[in-house]
Amino acid sequence: MPAASSCGVMETSDGIKEVYETNYKDAKKIINHTDAHNNTTTFVQDLSGNITASINGERNETKYS
């Protein structure tokens, strides 16, 4: 089954654009947030909305149970 995804751009009050991308794959919701400095933070949620992992811009992963 192909993954569903969506993407959006938000502009802050000071004119900085940030990109949000959401993908659904393998019973997970994956949210990528890229800030104006091109740093990407990823959050992984189960389908109940619980955050199960986060990955910071340096690719360090923290898992939650």
Question: How would you summarize this macromolecular structure in one to three sentences?
Answer:
The protein is mainly beta and 65 residues long.
What report would you give on this structure?
With 65 residues, the protein is an all-beta fold. It has one domain. 0% of the residues lie in helices and 60% in strands. It contains no helices and 6 strands. Strands 1-2-3-4-5-6 form a 6-stranded antiparallel beta sheet, with no helix packed on it. Strand 5 (51-55) and strand 6 (61-63) form a beta hairpin. It is globular.
- Note the main sheet: 6 strands, antiparallel
**Rounded mean pLDDT score:** 84
Ends apart, CA distance between termini:
27 Å
Physical arrangement of strands within the biggest beta sheet: 1-2-3-4-5-6
Summary tags:
single chain; 65 residues; mainly beta; 6-stranded antiparallel beta sheet; 6 strands; 0% helix; 60% strand; globular
Secondary structure layout plus pairing:
Elements: E1 4-11, E2 17-25, E3 28-34, E4 40-46, E5 51-55, E6 61-63
Antiparallel strand pairs: 1-2, 2-3, 3-4, 4-5, 5-6
